Amino acid sequence: MAVSDVHPIHVFESWQVWPGSYDNPPPDGLYPIPTPQEMIIDRTTPITSMGSCFAREIKRVLLAKGFNYVAEETHHPASVHAGAAWERTYNTFSMRQIFEYTFTDWRPRIRWWFTPETRIVQDPYRRIILYDSVEQAEADFERHRMYSRKALTTARVFILTLGLTEIWEDIEDGSVICLPSGPYVNEGGDMSRYRFRVSRYEENLANLIRIRELLYVHNPHCRIVVTVSPVHLWATFRRDCEVFSASCNSKATLRAAADEFASRYDNVLYFPAFEIASIYRPLLGQPVFTEGRENFHVNQETIDFIMETFFRYYGLRPSDEDT
């Protein structure tokens, strides 16, 4: 049991107090896990994932360790980051739209962008996915919807990694583009119908609830593990604050939404990837960020530590991880 001079009549478990505080032992290199945690995975459990850059790292580690990762549409370059060709999805609006086009008849008013100079067809709602013609785009998208549905209905554990709260929204129908990037934007495509804004707690929570509703209808036995990506914003579109404050706001908003989301539903669990990277690793005196041009990313040692903790949380003993 933990020691507290401040609250001597209360009995705390070791994971309830800050390691090294007062007369409590310092961090021992194993992230504290509240008990009991339900074991929801083994190597046969169908698992898939969606989200920001960190979702790609989750997929890579699960595949490398021989887990039953549900990977559809593997011929498509956009599938390298997730369970299907969703590419990287940074905000909960894009995630919700994936579920809506997979399971409903979601149709934004502008379905495709046409680049002004090269006349390439670009998908505004997935990160820089390009086609030579509308016919090619529509045929590929229909195949993608089929693969997306297969991935989301096959998985028994769905890992959702939340990234940021900044969005670019269509002012006419409310649809949210992935990013203002790619050849359409670079060639001067009309962006006048899109506005930038910072989404807030209630909206992000509503998106998560909608995602669960659709998943539950079509795959009621699937568990959701929601986490906040430890990868920070490389840049912010905001003009009222600098990148550090913008990144902190995004993570704090999403962390609060994820907490409420997990507290409402028995089939939703929260995994503290962000806390492991931003608090626990620094407490150990370990570097967190990678070096070089992408120094807003977490380094490989931190990724490995997060995934080792994930296995301890949800099913595998450390001695089983490489067997």
UniProtKB/TrEMBL annotation:
Residues in GSCFA domain copies: 47-310
InterPro entries: GSCFA (IPR014982)
Protein name (Swiss-Prot/TrEMBL): GSCFA family protein
Organism per entry: Desulfomonile tiedjei
Lineage, uppermost ranks: Bacteria, Pseudomonadati, Thermodesulfobacteriota, Desulfomonilia, Desulfomonilales
